[in-house]
Amino acid sequence: MRQVLIYPGEDGFWIAECPSLKGCVSQGITKEDAIKNVKEAIDLYLKVLKEDNIEIPEDNFDSILIAV
What we know:
Elements: E1 5-8, E2 14-17, E3 25-28, H1 31-51
Antiparallel strand pairs: 1-2, 2-3
């Protein structure tokens, strides 16, 4: 399981990003679509790392949301 950020994009789509996997980003028309798509992206990302014998990064996500 990985932590994911979901936020609205400028084009009206929802962006879903997995910060612990650099560059692992997806999107969807709805939040649910974005979540489904990023789950698939995470699975494929991890599969490629395993196939290439590359160490899988830990899920060490730290964030703070503030309004200024």
